[in-house]
Amino acid sequence: MFVVDEVVRFTYRLRPGAAAQAALSAEWGRCRWLWNEAVHQQKTGRNPTFCKLSRLLTEARARFAWLREGSQVAQQQTLRTYALALQHSYKVKGRGRPAVKRLRNSLPSLEYTVRGFTIRERRLRLAGGITIPVVWSREMPSEPTSVRVYQDSLGHWYASFVVRRAVEAAPTVDKTIGVDWGVTVTATTSDPAYDLPYLGHRKRCAAELARVQRRMSRRRRPRGNPPSKGYLRAKRQAAELHKKAARQNTHDARQWAKRVVDDHSLIAVEDFTPKFLARSTMARKAADAAIGAARRELIDRGMRAGRKVVLVPPAYTTMTCSQCGTRAKERLGLGVRIFRCGDCGHTACRDRNAARAILATVERDRAGADDVRHVITSLRAGGYARSEPEIPRL
């Protein structure tokens, strides 16, 4: 077993006072103004690269005194983040351009490099004379190279440090597994012992959440009037319920992904995008299942452990027999939960058969590097064959 270094984030709770909160809010207001100016540059067709935005920042700081009061490091990092988001939007099909950040629906988020922060006497000191106590829940393995200070929907402030840590590679194993995503069962695998059931954390608090949301509706004032204290209190209670369910889903996904990665060297994952479920009748249950969070956690943990993770397109996986590779002639409806092969007579659970078909797709074509790959397959004479070369995904 050998030791490797990995770059990770360590997040800690902050306890800023009234003066520190006011300073952070003012800094966020300046950075938000710069972000919106960059969006305006893009909409007017001026192709705002990071170099052009940096020159505009220098001119703006020379012109406005209120902008010079803020940290140049945080402002530059805001423009760098915008430039990366804009560049990513051109590469990813269907991804929209960066949008305007409005005060009413955007949460503060500030980034600092090593030039903009220090840790002294176990307190975080940011550029501009902002000092914030930190709840050190665990020790950092190394000196941080950057930090992101942000606020969540409950008004809590956090600091996310980028650090390096030494980790031991996962033990050598020879087991393989296929993963199929669903709503009734969040993750159905080729081995029933590693299934991730639908836990329904949001469903358990649905009645309480509905009661709080009705209270918000009753206390909502007409447009143009400031919200009442009762409305803000009910809004905070709803945010607490949402955050509690999200944390429970994240915890369960991490525990499940750790079990799968520790025991398997090859992980075949259905390349499923649950976004379309938000426009269907299964939207609420799909959101509660948190398929996307479990998928990201499995891929990230598998990559860090050095496992071979392969993404397989979901097309025809439900219609394909995992034993003989024969594809059914008719598409199976959602009400049909048992798969029956007309050629070999194989009978299995619909999702279990799909997971085993996903695994068979990868096992019968093992070529590829040890990273996340996108395998595109076609069916030939009852078997699996590659129709396109592998395309690295990550």
Automatic annotation (TrEMBL):
<comment type="similarity">
    <text>In the C-terminal section; belongs to the transposase 35 family.</text>
</comment>
<dbReference type="GO" id="GO:0006310">
    <property type="term" value="P:DNA recombination"/>
</dbReference>
<feature type="domain" description="Cas12f1-like TNB">
    <location>
        <begin position="303"/>
        <end position="358"/>
    </location>
</feature>
<feature type="region of interest" description="Disordered">
    <location>
        <begin position="213"/>
        <end position="233"/>
    </location>
</feature>
<keyword id="KW-0815">Transposition</keyword>
<dbReference type="InterPro" id="IPR010095">
    <property type="entry name" value="Cas12f1-like_TNB"/>
</dbReference>
<dbReference type="GO" id="GO:0003677">
    <property type="term" value="F:DNA binding"/>
</dbReference>
<keyword id="KW-0233">DNA recombination</keyword>
<dbReference type="Pfam" id="PF07282">
    <property type="entry name" value="Cas12f1-like_TNB"/>
</dbReference>
<dbReference type="InterPro" id="IPR001959">
    <property type="entry name" value="Transposase"/>
</dbReference>
<feature type="compositionally biased region" description="Basic residues">
    <location>
        <begin position="213"/>
        <end position="223"/>
    </location>
</feature>
<keyword id="KW-0238">DNA-binding</keyword>
<protein>
    <submittedName>
        <fullName>Transposase</fullName>
    </submittedName>
</protein>
<feature type="domain" description="Probable transposase IS891/IS1136/IS1341">
    <location>
        <begin position="168"/>
        <end position="272"/>
    </location>
</feature>
<dbReference type="GO" id="GO:0032196">
    <property type="term" value="P:transposition"/>
</dbReference>
<dbReference type="Pfam" id="PF01385">
    <property type="entry name" value="OrfB_IS605"/>
</dbReference>
